[in-house]
Amino acid sequence: MKNSRIFSLATRNALVYFILFVISLGLIGALIIFNSSREIHNLTEKRLLHNNEIIKLKFEGYFKAIVNDVHQIGDNPSLKEYIYTPNDANLASVEDAFYAMLKNKPNYFQIRLLSTQNKGEELIRVEKKNKEIRKTPKALLQFKNSRDYFQEILKLPLDSIYFSKIDLNREFGKISTPITPTTRIGKKIEGNKNEQFILLVNINLTQLFEELKHTVPKHYELRIFNGNGDYFIHPDYQKEFAFEYGKPSYFQTEFPSIQFNSNDWSKPIIAKNTVNQFSQLNFQRINYALYCDVSANKDDVYASFYEWKNKIILYSSIIAIFFLAIGFLLMRNQNKELGIITQELTTFSENLKPTVLHVDRKDEIGDLARSFEKMSSKITESHQLMLLAKNNAEKANQDKSDFIANMSHEIKNPLQAILGSIEILNQNDKLDEQIPYLNSIQFSTQQLNYMVMDVLDYNKLKNKEITLSPTWNNLHVFCQELINSIQYLADYKKIDLQLLYPEELKQYIYAYDYKRLYQILYNLLTNAIKFTNPAGKVTLQVKAINHNSVRFEVIDNGSGIAPNTLKKILDRNFSSDYSTGSGLGLVIIKDIIELHGSTLKIDSKINVGSKFSFDLKLDRQLLNNLPVPKIDQMNSILIIEDDLEIQNYYAHIFQSAKTEILNSPNELESITETFDFIITDLHFSNTKISVEQYLLNLKERCKPDGLIIVISGTAYISKEKGIKSLLKPIDKNSLQTLMFTHHIGIEYNPIRFGGIEEDYDHDPALIKKAMRLIVPSWEKDIKNLSLALKNQDIKKFKDIQHRLVTNLRRFGLENVIQFIDEISIKMANEKVDDTQLTILLQQYLIELKQYQAAI
Fold first, then answer.
1. Are 827 and 797 in contact (CB under 8 A)?
2. I want to staple 702 with a disulfide (CB 3.0 to 4.6 A). Which of 556, 584, 706, 757 is the partner?
3. DSSP-assigned states of every residue in 581-626
């Protein structure tokens, strides 16, 4: 094909352009311009490289001399004598040697000898301040074990040289004046009886930096910076050591396209209006790189050349335009055929069908047409295979989701049946000796349910998608049932398992997330039992920290955790016997505690024992002081459930309400009336109707202001109004609260947070500060309002009402304001029940706290 051409397209174009450009280049002297600019550019690069090499030699020679000095100090006989025989005479000799070094080296301002033991105690410190050299008295010596450089030197082998990061010298945590760029050169020295010492010299880099700045010519610029882009030397002194003042790195702003992931600095880089020559400086610190940049402004380098070049470009442009017009006429015929190919390319991208082009040219256009025909056929075939693979992947993913949903449903149905049966048994007469067994079965079944949910919700927990759902519960009963449920584990190892719960707290109930608190304490207790020797002791201790904070402590006298392992076991990617005990493991427990706004604290000693503790801020009130909504207030309920045991459970808790129970969605056709509440499962073995269509059918059986409650083994979230969901297995209180909340929600608006966000200009910090004042005030007013209602204290009621109105209006709760006004009027003539108002305000209080936590 290639040999059949007489003159190819490339050949014809080359001939035409050659003639045109030869004429143009002959007229404007383009060759001279090119060679001139190239020569200027090469000369600039050589000068930059030369200056860069000088900088490197000075920098590396400076630090080489320092390293020699450190070795010399470390080999000083006086120092060796003091290390092996520490007495006052030898101490004085070493201090004199340090003194002499500081006097002879103007850039050295501090020499210290540290012990690697006894918390990094300073043994000797001689320092230079305001040109005066002082020997530090023993009473003023410090302990340096908390400093980064001390910990880093400990990891180095003996006699190796340590280089610290370059920063500004600080005195007592503040940048010292005058500002002093500093680095520390250290050496680990072996002493008597395998003792080790650290020799440390603090270097003032001011003189070095000034010398480096004066090394480059005046019209050149010097920059020295680290791998984070933090400048130590910069033409603008305000950008030097900006990181010490909490300012961001300026490097990526000046050089956004440069990534220092290579050691090849041989080629200059053009950035904006400068020519830059970069190199890496030899600074002997691991994972810490220093770079040097010598740059020249292109305007200075090419000033005269630019003026001459602009004139040449002007003249050449006029000539080039003339000859380009001629070339344009010659290309018109070729463009027509290229336009046909372009049109086919556009059409192919839309429909992905194979294309056939009838182009018989013997040049590159013909080759392009024929190649495109082959390519379009292959792309079409690949696209069809990709669609097939995509459909298979989507089907596999759907099968996985269906499996998880069905598994959850099959596991949770028996759990719901067990819990329902236990609740029915608890309502009937039973022997005293049966009560502990029923309570234990109920508690353990609930915990089994929570563990099943943990497995299904693991990814949500890992991605911080789990939210807390606090409810009012008796904390003492909860802790006692928890202890009872794991007593068999302790009995098996003959471990003394105890609960220490203060008497003064037993009069209160607390609002907490029952399931999440169980996960935390269950895991900590089972781990404690697992790692406690037989006949040992494990204690769950509950303490009151203040009015609304409770501390939980799990204490054992087991094997303990080594200090070097303590931090590792909290790493999600670390695996050990301790972090893989019962339940979710310490890593996930730590995450759950952090969801509560708290921190897991661990105090452990080898062969002594461990104490795991955390504090939770929990709302509390006196026992039996929380109003409970009554199911009797509901009008009509439709239940759709195919499990007989769960049907019996629903019949038991709704025995005083008008209730209709169906076995399958197929029986909906026999129902003509509408209901206030519809409770339904989503998984039925005898129906294939989609979830969306099923819920649509249910809405036709639900009153306009009614509620559909979906009970499912996996989380189901609907954006449709009037549809809520609960996870299996449900408990009576959760279901009643949801139904009652909806019942009062018919009359009152939900909270709107737009008003307070506008008041504080949508600033999260200001909103959070305001909520810290609003929430406690609201909580206090609810309690006082309920008390005023019970005591028929109209004056107190109106005082509280006056304070509440502002916040109620801010949150868009005008109907609540109207309702409180009606109660105020009724109080003058009759006793008013406070239950509904108190529950409503408490529900709003929970929403406020959830909003506060989410800010």
1. yes
2. 706
3. SSTT-HHHHHHHHHHTT---EEEEETTTEEEEEEEEE-EEEETT-S
Give the relative orientation of helices 88-104 and 30-74 as an angle to the nearest 10 degrees.
160
Bridge partners of 293? 223, 278
Q: Is residue 546 in a domain? A: yes
- Both 476 and 584 in one domain: the answer is yes
Spatial neighbors of 497 by CB under 8 A, at least 6 apart, are: 483, 486, 487, 490, 525, 529, 538, 539
The pLDDT of residue 583 is above 50:
no
Give which of 615, 618, 583, 572 is closest to 468, Cα–Cα.
618
What is the residue range of 723's domain? 631-742
User: What sign does the dihedral 478-484-490-496 (CA atoms) show?
Assistant: positive
Same domain, 235 and 177: no
Residues 600 and 461 in one domain: yes
More confidently predicted of 715 and 121: 121
Average confidence (pLDDT) over 111-126: 90
Average pLDDT, the chain: 79
User: Which pair of tokens denotes residue 453?
Assistant: 């949910």
Q: Are residues 214 and 293 in the same domain?
A: yes
Burial zone of 217 (CB within 10 Å; 0-12 exposed, 13-18 middle, 19+ buried): exposed
Beta bridge partners of 319: none
The separation between CA 687 and the C-alpha centre of its own chain, rounded to angstroms, equals 43
Does the structure show a pLDDT above 80 at 727? no
Residues 482 and 585 in one domain: yes
Q: How many CA atoms lie within 13 A of 435 on its CB side?
A: 7
Q: Which amino acid is at 377?
A: S
Query: pTM for the full model?
Result: 0.38
Report residue 799 as tokens. 């005082």
> How many domains, in total, are found in the chain?
5
The answer to whether 359 and 68 have CB atoms below 8 angstroms apart is no
Cross-strand bridge partners of residue 675: 702
pLDDT at 764: 84
Specify the CATH number for the domain of residue 166.
3.30.450.20
CB atoms within 10 A of CB 31: 10
pLDDT tens profile 363-397: 666 777 777 777 777 777 777 788 888 888 777 76
Between CA 633 and CA 652 the distance in angstroms is: 16
Any idea what the Cα angle at residue 728 is, between residues 725 and 730, rounded to 5°?
Answer: 85
Phi, psi angles (nearest 5°) of residue 53: -65, -40
Choose the final residue of a domain: 302, 328, 355.
302
Q: Where are the beta strands (DSSP E) in 100-216?
A: 108-115, 122-129, 132-135, 161-163, 167-168, 170-171, 174-175, 181-190, 196-204
657/770 same-domain check: no
Distance (Å) of CA 94 to CA 86, 196, 199, 588: 10, 17, 12, 54
Q: How do residues 542-553 score in pLDDT, each as one tens digit?
A: 999 887 799 999
Does any domain span residue 343?
no
Which of 261, 279, 302 marks a domain boundary?
302
Beta strand extents in 684-772 (DSSP E only): 702-712, 723-727
Residue that has been written with the tokens 């050169």 in this structure:
185
Kind and range of the H or E run holding 67? helix 30-74
Candidate ranges 119-133, 271-285, 470-484, 616-630; pick with highest mean pLDDT: 119-133
Please check whether residue 581 lies inside any domain of the structure. Answer: yes
Please, which residues have CB within 8 angstroms of residue 382's CB and are 6 or more apart in sequence? none
